[in-house]
Amino acid sequence: MDITGDTVTYGFHGVAETEAALLGSMIARLARRLPGPVTQAPAHEAQIVFFEGSAPPLEGPCVRSVRLVRNPGTQQLPDSLPMPPHITNVLAIFTDVLRSEVHAKGQCQVMKSLVRALHDLVQARGAPHALVGKDGANLILYPADRQFSWSGSPGGQPLSEVFQSHRITGLGLHPLGAEGPQEDRERRGIEPLLWHAGLAHARCGLVPWVGHDPLLKMRVWPYLTGQGPATATRLATLLRARPHTVSALADAAGVGEVEAVAFANAALLCGFVTSAPPAAGEAGSDRPMPIMDAAASRAGRLPGIFGAIRHALGMRA
Amino acid sequence: MNARTMPLELVTAFDYEIRQLHARLSGAIGCMLATTDGRRVAAVVDNEADPQRVSAMVGSIVALGETIGREVMIGRTQFVAVSAEGGMILLQRVPARRDLLVVGTLARHNTNLGILLHETGITATAAAALLDGWLDASETPS
Amino acid sequence: MNDDLKLVFAGSMGAGKTTAIGAISEIAPITTEAANTDRTEFDKEQTTVAMDYGEITLATGEKLRLYGTPGQVRFRFMWPILAAGALGAVILIDNSRPDPLADLALYVEAFRPLARAGAIIVGVGRMDRCPRPSLEDYADRLADLDIVVPVMPADVRRRDDVLNLLEVLLQHIEATWAFGDDGGDGGLSFSAALGAGS
């Protein structure tokens, strides 16, 4: 799902049919007064989910879950909707979500253009550029040397904060002017910077130059997996074993697609991973050689062995 | 001890002892002296065997023999013998103050094992005397 | 396949193979050490000349056997002997040595069948004291060798670091198996792949 899409979706989870129908018809009547289009979707795909308190937790791309509340004493809780619903309450919920989505979409436009500019600059091994933020903290990029220097850490602002959402709209990439490179600052390899830019881009989807859900193939081991996301090593081992699309990788690793997108973006930006249209390569065509007898695998012995080894060494499964 | 800095006179003396062993033993195919960590010190080999490579194997096999001896609690290993279709090899530590050297003797299969042991032992003892003498000299303040 | 489960610790002299096995073995490691007669190569009293051995008992009753190889190139004949039938290998590189990337190439080439099978991991030690070459340099060198395997820093004196290496190695092997050919013909034992020679 693209959370920056134009349409906001809503769904119901564990809500009685009559109440869902009531809310549905109210939302339909309100649609003309909302700042953007609204449509109903299954709860596991919806951005706004109305739910009953007793309903089991739901996994999905939900950005706002709204509890239906019947106790008048709890009506002031945020993200709750007193029942029966009032038009003003429902209108406020949708307006708020739509506004935040519009804001996120605007940020994503900035993010996409910034990451593309970074990528193009590094690929072209161009002249030094400055990445300047509103607060004055700045990075100097030396694309030809694949290096950067900056006024942040060690001891100060961590690199992971450079691309945080509240700063992103103020960031600009400019050719280094007459002030020249600040040679007194320590230069570092550019990969960690690109890695964090890729991670930050995850909320806006895949990096823009690779197309829709391309086939990813590992070229170099992504040695920065320790910098996130938490499942990066698992994603990397799976991708090393066989080319995957991002969605297939997320499925294989059993992680959310946003995490797989974050890893893919970071690895693509650093050049650890290459992309091709899904039809260009047969997944598994570069299949590595198994090392033990196929009979062992057929017998289903290996999963048990790995579990037993982890258990014996006190590792988390 | 540093095998690379072993004085030339000592290496020459070891080489002499190894050549003597090879000459004394009619069934000998090759004789060598190696460090316990697998470096060649002196060797006379009649066949195609590579003394450098064999020296490394000698170090490994003697260490394995001694490890097995400890593991099964039969005490310190005296020698390790390998008998094959085309011959046999006997590996014996040099009984110096420090366990630094091993003598290896490769002989034809019809060689008497007792004689092989005896002759190899003589060379090991001679090498031990040379090594101890050198160690004494190196440790004595000048 | 027999019931032996084997992991191999390989790599340069002084990289910490014996220490790594000692960090996780449930028995006191069995070692085959001899006096080190060349302090110019690495300044330590003793060096492994045949193998190190440790073991871990699994809940299934099986033993996970841990073998350490001797590091010096002259003991290369031992490497395929010890690696035959191994589940995987940890290659330890000492970043304080004169040319760690040459060491990497040497050991990865020697264990190439396991590497191609997705069953090795490279642990780089002493990066705190010697940050160059960087992990990026290692990853690039591996790519030059047409091998993509995990590479990560590790201080094998710390048990957690050894476990971390093994965890990633296990994930790596699992991932390979998850997408490997389970049809029978695709299976290839490491001993067959490596052959008898070194």
Uncertain residue ranges of chain B: none
How would you name the CATH homologous superfamily of chain B?
A: Dynein light chain 2a, cytoplasmic
| Helix percent band of chain B | 40-55%
Major sheet strand order of chain A: 2-1-3-4-5
User: What form of chain B results from the Cα inertia axes?
Assistant: globular
Sequence of strands across the biggest β-sheet of chain B: 2-1-5-4-3
Listing every helix as H and every strand as E from the N terminus to the C terminus, the arrangement of chain B reads HEEHEEEH
Q: Note the gap between the termini of chain B.
A: 18 Å
Percent of residues in β-strands of chain A: 15-25%
Give the oligomer, counting copies of the same chain as homo and different chains as hetero. heterotrimer
Give the overall form of chain A: globular
Overall structural class of chain B, as computed from helix and strand content, comes to alpha+beta
Q: Report the radius of gyration of chain B as a whole number of Å.
A: 15 Å
Number of domains of chain B: 1
Count, helices of chain A? 9
Low-confidence stretches of chain A: 282-291
Which strand-content bin applies to the residues of chain B?
A: 15-25%
The largest sheet of chain B, given as strand count, sense and whether it forms a barrel, is:
5 strands, antiparallel
| Series of H and E elements of chain A | EHEEEEHEEEHEEHEHEHHEHH
